[in-house]
Structure formats: C-alpha cells, structure tokens
Design a protein that fits this description.
Blueprint: H1 2-18, E1 27-34, H2 38-49, E2 55-58, E3 70-75, E4 81-85, E5 90-92, H3 103-110, E6 115-117, E7 123-127, E8 130-131, H4 136-157, H5 165-171, H6 180-194, H7 203-215, E9 221-224, H8 232-238, E10 249-250, E11 255-260, E12 265-269, E13 274-282, H9 286-290, E14 295-297, H10 302-310, E15 312-314, E16 316-322, E17 336-340, E18 350-353, E19 365-371, H11 372-380, H12 383-398, E20 408-410, E21 424-426, H13 433-440, E22 446-448, H14 461-479, H15 499-505
Parallel strand pairs: 1-2, 1-13, 2-10, 7-17, 11-14, 13-22
Antiparallel strand pairs: 3-4, 5-9, 6-9, 7-8, 11-12, 12-13, 15-21, 16-19, 16-20, 17-18, 18-19
The structure holds flavin-adenine dinucleotide and 2-acetamido-2-deoxy-beta-D-glucopyranose (NAG) (7 copies).
The site of one 2-acetamido-2-deoxy-beta-D-glucopyranose has 4 residues, from β11.
Pfam families: Amino_oxidase
Family: Belongs to the flavin monoamine oxidase family.
Keywords: FAD, Flavoprotein, Oxidoreductase, Signal
Length: about 525
Amino acid sequence: MANYKHLLLVPLALASSVLGSPAKKCEKTSVAILGGGVAGITAAQTLSNSSIHDFIILEYNSDIGGRMRHTTFGQDANGKPLTVELGANWIQGLGTNGGPQNPIWLLAQKYGVNNTYSDYSSILTYDETGYVNYSSLFDDYENAYSVTEELAGTILSENLQDRNARAGFTRGDWRPKKDMKMQAVEWWEWDWEYAYEPEVSSLVFGIVNFNTTFYQWSDENNFVVDQRGFNTWLKGEASTFLKKNDTRLRLNTTVTNVTYSDTGVTITDSQGGCYQADYAICTFSLGVLQNEAVSFQPEFPEWKQDGIDNFDMGTYTKIFLQFPPDKVFWPKDTQYFLYADPVERGFYPVFQSLDTPGFLEGSGIIFVTVVHDQSYRVEAQTDEETKNQVLAVLRDMFGADKVPDPIAFMYPRWSLEPWSYGSYSNWPYGVTLEMHQNLRANLGRLYFAGEATSAEYFGFLQGAWYEGQSAAEQVVTCLNGHCAQEVHYSPLYGSTPPNQYDEQNGWTVTSFQTNGF
Ligand SMILES: Cc1cc2nc3c(=O)[nH]c(=O)nc-3n(C[C@H](O)[C@H](O)[C@H](O)COP(=O)(O)OP(=O)(O)OC[C@H]3O[C@@H](n4cnc5c(N)ncnc54)[C@H](O)[C@@H]3O)c2cc1C
Ligand SMILES: *[C@@H]1O[C@H](CO)[C@@H](O)[C@H](O)[C@H]1NC(C)=O
Ligand SMILES: *[C@@H]1O[C@H](CO)[C@@H](O)[C@H](O)[C@H]1NC(C)=O
Ligand SMILES: *[C@@H]1O[C@H](CO)[C@@H](O)[C@H](O)[C@H]1NC(C)=O
Ligand SMILES: *[C@@H]1O[C@H](CO)[C@@H](O)[C@H](O)[C@H]1NC(C)=O
Ligand SMILES: *[C@@H]1O[C@H](CO)[C@@H](O)[C@H](O)[C@H]1NC(C)=O
Ligand SMILES: *[C@@H]1O[C@H](CO)[C@@H](O)[C@H](O)[C@H]1NC(C)=O
Ligand SMILES: *[C@@H]1O[C@H](CO)[C@@H](O)[C@H](O)[C@H]1NC(C)=O
C-alpha cells in the first residue's frame, strides 16, 4: 500500500502547480520591503526602530542605494580610478542655524560625506560662436520668477485652478520663445531641476517643491565628491540594523509578481522564490510602475492606475568626459559653462567642471547634462555618436584647436534601466493633490513609498527618506492593531479642497517665506 501512495503523490503535486497554487512553500515574513534604495532602507530602519525585526528587503541590484549610485570613471595621476555619481549628486537644501535641517544633510555630516558648495553664480555663458556674455538674462529670469512664485502662492491660498509654469513666467514678463540665449537660461533655471519643460510642469507644485526644500532649510546645494560614493551614508545607516550578510537583505532579487489583498501580500521573484508577507512596502520608482515591469494582481483599480499614469518620470543624463589633465581648456576657477545652441533647446546645455578647487581638482573631468527628449535621444545613441556631438559643441564653445580628444567617456542610460526606467518624477500641470494622494495610498496591505509619493519633496533624496519612514510608520500602526487606511479619492473632480493642503501635508502657502529671501 505504501508504494501506491508514493506513486499517487507525483501527479497530485503536478496538478496543483498547473492549477496555479505554488508548488513551493512561500517564505513567511511580517513585512516585505520591495526595493533597497533610500525609501526601502529607511522603511526598514523605521521598523527596526519600532522593534519590528521580522522583515525582508528584496532588491534587484547587487547592492543597496538605488538611484543614489556611483561608478568609477577615468583615473587620477597615480592611475587610481576616480568615483563619479551616476544618479543623485547634490544635497539640496542644507539647514538653518538652530532651525530645521534637511535629514539628508544631517546624515551626510554623520558619515563625513565629502561635499562642496555648488556656486551657481560661478558660471560663464556661451553660444555656437564661443564666449558671449548674456549673464544679465539671469537677473531677468529671477525677476520673473519672483512674480511666478507669488502667483503660485495666490493660486494655492485661494484654491484657484493650477496652470503650467510657462503661464507663471509669462505673468512675470519672461517670454523666451524666440531667443535661444533666454531658452538656455530658462533651461538652467527650470529644466535642470525638474527634468521637464515649464510647459508640462505644474506651476503650484513646482513652486511648492522649491519652497519646501530651499526656503524651509537653505538655498544651498552641496555637490558630493566623496570617493566612497554618496550612498556611503545609506550603507552606514543600514549597518546600524543589518548585520554583515544579514539574511533579511536579498540582493540580486528581481521581483516579478505581487499579489495583494486585505489579508496579506505574496511576492514572487524571477528565480521562483516566493514570499508570503503580512504587509508589503513597494518602493519601486514611478518608471517601474508605469512600465509594468512588475505584475500586480489583482490589476490596480482605476484610481490607482490613473494616479500612476498622470505623473511624469523624468530622465536626467550626465555625460562624463575626461581630458588629459595638462590639456584642460576651460577656466579652472569656474564651475559651470552654459551653452545656448542656435537650433535646439536643451542641446548639451550645461557643462560642469570637476577639475575645479573643492571638486576633483586635477582630474581633467567635465560633464554635461541633458534631460527629457534630449535624454531619450542621447540614451538611444551609441557612445561614439554622443561623444562626437559633445566634442563639436565644446569645440564651438572653446575653440577647435583647444579641445583634444577625451581619454575617457561614459554615461548611464537611465531611461532604459529596468529597475528605474528614468531618473526622478515631476508633477505635471493640471494634476491635483488628490490625484497625487491616489498614487501614494495603500491597496489593502500593500503600501507605497518613494520620491514620487512625496507631495513636497518629489524628485529629491529627502522625499524618498520621509516617504520610506512614513509608510513604515503606517505599517507599524497596523502591526500594533490600530490600522487606518490611507485616504484615496474616487471619482476625481479636478480640484483639491484647500484644507487638504495642510491636513495631508503640513505645508501652507505661508509656511516657508521667512528664511532670508
Ligand atoms: C540622474 C539622477 C540625478 C539625481 N540628482 C539628485 C540630486 O542631486 N539630489 C537629490 O536629492 N536627488 C537626486 N536624484 C533623485 C534621487 O536619487 C531619488 O529621489 C532617490 O534616490 C529615490 O529613492 P527611492 O528609494 O524612492 O527609489 P530607488 O532609489 O529607485 O529605490 C527603489 C529600489 O527598487 C529596486 N527595484 C526596482 N525594480 C525592482 C524589482 N523588480 N525587483 C526588486 N527590486 C527592484 C531598485 O533597484 C531600487 O534599488 C537624482 C536621481 C537621478 C537618477
Ligand atoms: C531610527 O533611530 C535612530 C536612533 O534614534 C535615528 O538616528 C534614526 O533617524 C531613526 N530612523 C528613522 C528612519 O526614523
Ligand atoms: C550579485 O550578483 C553580482 C553580479 O553577478 C555578484 O558579484 C554578487 O556576488 C551577487 N551578490 C549576492 C549577494 O548574491
Ligand atoms: C557679464 O556682464 C555683466 C553685466 O551684464 C557683468 O556684470 C559681468 O561682470 C560680465 N561678466 C564677465 C565675465 O565679464
Ligand atoms: C513660495 O515662497 C514665496 C517667497 O516666500 C512666496 O511668495 C510664495 O507664496 C510661496 N509659494 C508657494 C506656492 O508656497
Ligand atoms: C559574508 O559573506 C562573504 C561572501 O560569502 C564572506 O566572504 C564573508 O566572510 C561573510 N562575512 C561574515 C561576517 O559572515
Ligand atoms: C506573474 O505575472 C505574469 C504576467 O501578468 C503572469 O503571466 C504570471 O502567471 C504571474 N505569475 C505568478 C506566479 O503569479
Ligand atoms: C574631499 O574632497 C576634496 C576634493 O576632492 C579632497 O581634496 C579632500 O582630500 C577630500 N577630503 C576627504 C576627507 O576625503
């Protein structure tokens, strides 16, 4: 009899896997954290801080950090490879003496992350004929910007309809359409931060984003040159609650399916691994969610899917060149070189020197940044095509005889990375706070966090940090038996009741007007 029973078990196991129930037993955990970037690691630390130690972190890459990512590029005079940041590079908004501080600034200081003040007034202006001084246009832009930010404040406080940043600038008498030098200045002031043109950017939330970081803390941006990489601080924080080779951190793990409900979340990875969690926190980028890189079951309800689809995932591409250090052709005491192309807006517009005191002096490295459509074009090109275009621009700017061939050349392709599909999010015009809350809200026991779910700090490291902390705090509340669902809005009527600005987000129009501006 025992023999017959043994034979019967095989077809039964096959039948159950055909019917879709997993043949393999799922590993059980209280909280599954999907992604080991700033939001994911901060969520895990928040759980730890609340004495919840039963969690796992599932991460696609072979290390933590996510979009805070570096690589080696070129080498110094001693042949030692140099480290440059592919993703986040600045600590944006530092802190006020005795006042509020950016958490990223505090963490960078805690781990001695080497950084240098980015001097945005250290800039020279160029066009296709070479150096041309059009820096008076910065003042014109800034005058228009004052009108624009006040208008955004009025729209917010009077609950008027949002409009695009272009409409705001026009109210300030800034009309760059027919002038490529004005376009270059506008790119430097707007697109370089938001990775999108003013036409497609929300006026109100663009200004809220700027005010909360730069008027709450400080207007300073410090550029990280640490040869251990910017993510040193995140690894340091992780090491306070994860042991070496901690089995709760699963690197090289690609999540493929997430099945959520009101009772739990089941996750599978590309190797057939299966995890059964009481709660999950999804920190995948907006780009990953938009590109259906991971399959969610059941399919997202319309309010959630619309929330995901209505936001924009920007691409910001840094293109690095190293020249022989003894042949550096740009003035070494200047940090930035702005280029106004005669035909295309945003065509290799901002060159940034690393061979400058306080940066990577003596390195011969300079890099140029493109965003949005120019990023898509560049990221679809070969290195050779891009290198030739950049060199042609540099030779127009500095003189054909002055610019040698680079000894190293490299750039990341953010729009094509299956674990990010872009660089960071932007708030498009016409999208309300309610729609944003739908992007942010939980679905049963599946919670969402990341830079894009922050209404104030989207696009910034601080957004990912606050959101990772906040989602984990919600999960802690649930695990302690006092669970409250996050609000979502369905249907949407295209306006946000004024009281929601402060109830949900704690910021008001007048909160951040006092820091010396
Ligand atoms: C080029 C660039 C420049 C930037 N510059 C700045 C700056 O100067 N200052 C600043 O403050 N911010 C900057 N940012 C933004 C900042 O990097 C982000 O806001 C922040 O790193 C986002 O953290 P996150 O945890 O929300 O997302 P992520 O870092 O994307 O973390 C999500 C994690 O999920 C993982 N993942 C994705 N898919 C899967 C899957 N299927 N299975 C398992 N794991 C998966 C990813 O590998 C990633 O580690 C920049 C970003 C880029 C790309
Ligand atoms: C966890 O607690 C430590 C020690 O108090 C603190 O430094 C850290 O910021 C906390 N982490 C989060 C995400 O709140
Ligand atoms: C992850 O993959 C990389 C590259 O394939 C490998 O070097 C590394 O050892 C792996 N790490 C883990 C923890 O599996
Ligand atoms: C460029 O012109 C402005 C006045 O518009 C002047 O203040 C500035 O010094 C000039 N810059 C250089 C480098 O000559
Ligand atoms: C932003 O700050 C400026 C300057 O303090 C203020 O005039 C404006 O109302 C603020 N706008 C918003 C949307 O917070
Ligand atoms: C961690 O794992 C690596 C690779 O498997 C091993 O060499 C190392 O000794 C381990 N460290 C500890 C502290 O267990
Ligand atoms: C994972 O998702 C894919 C695509 O939706 C689907 O075909 C597959 O059956 C799912 N697998 C599991 C284990 O749920
Ligand atoms: C910080 O970076 C600067 C510039 O690259 C370098 O000179 C300095 O030695 C670095 N400091 C530390 C502590 O690494």
